[in-house]
Design a protein that fits this description.
mainly alpha, 12 helices
């Protein structure tokens, strides 16, 4: 069953772009995320208390788990949602965030002492080429301009968060740990909302569906799987899975929205999968 966790994670993580596409037309990006975080905190707190989940005993553990949450959630999701909301195409956003495995490969040796083999480097490079092929047809959908900045911030956030969590808090209870991660995330996002937004949300059916999906499937399901994968695998192996997100998202969009796939995109999916395979199988 555990062998299916990476594939399940990729699928669930990819649906985040679908949920964003459904919900962002009806809400400001950070306000959307703040509402999502509040619901996740309430739900996970009830689950943690009801199941008597253990809480960290050391203050340093609380700090490290909280910092990892801010990086993985507040910085990464905030950057992605702001970029898409304000005009950066999903293709360019996916391409920018798709550089994460390369950055993680660079940082894992320096920060974690993990050895990245030549075969893994080859797989990382191959995966990046595949991602570029998948989104190449969408590069003209939106202007780069200043909206590239939040996408780059998101890239740095998810990369730093993966490395930080692997080094300082690779193991924690997923129930109580989710609460500890999302509380500082919500606080940081609330400050950003107060500074830059008016908390405008159109509470219609489309938004409620997107919100429910992102809370239950992404924040609970996908994030729990990500924490499990970080706990059990190397940072490079976990990061390589993010190469599969743009191709998987493209397939889901094909089914849900009827978006077509070019022959280049199909080949790119195969190339990206091959890159992940090289990383995962390298010794």
């Amino acid at each position: 069953m555990q062998r299916l966790y990476p594939l399940l994670f990729v699928f669930l993580w990819s649906t985040g772009f679908i949920g964003a596409k459904y919900g962002l037309p009806y809400a400001e990006p950070l306000s959307f995320l703040l509402t999502r975080y509040g619901l996740v905190i309430a739900l996970m707190l009830v689950i943690a208390l009801a199941t008597r989940a253990p809480w960290p005993e050391r203050r340093s553990d609380w700090l490290h788990i909280g910092v990892s949450g801010i990086l993985v959630h507040a910085v990464y999701l905030g950057g992605v949602f702001v970029a898409i909301k304000h005009g950066l195409s999903a293709g360019i956003t996916a391409l920018v965030v798709g550089m994460q495995p390369l950055l993680t490969g660079l940082g894992s040796g320096w920060l974690l002492g993990e050895k990245v083999t030549a075969r893994q480097w080859g797989g990382l490079a191959l995966g990046f080429v595949g991602v570029g092929m998948v989104v190449s047809g969408k590069l003209g959908d939106g202007a780069l301009g200043p909206m590239l900045v939040p996408a780059v911030v998101a890239l740095l956030g998810i990369t730093a968060g993966t490395l930080y969590q692997k080094r300082y808090c690779p193991k924690f209870d997923l129930r109580s740990g989710s609460v500890i991660q999302f509380v500082p995330t919500a606080i940081a996002t609330a400050v950003a909302v107060a500074l830059f937004e008016d908390y405008r949300i159109d509470w219609n059916g489309h938004f409620l569906f997107a919100l429910g999906w992102l809370v239950l499937v992404l924040s609970l399901g996908a994030i729990s799987l990500l924490n499990l994968l970080i706990r059990s695998g190397s940072a490079v192996n976990v990061a390589s899975l993010f190469y599969l997100t743009p191709p998987t998202t493209a397939l889901i969009a094909l089914v849900v929205f009827g978006e077509t796939l070019t022959p280049t995109a199909v080949v790119g999916m195969v190339v990206a999968v091959g890159g992940v395979y090289l990383v995962a199988r390298a010794k």
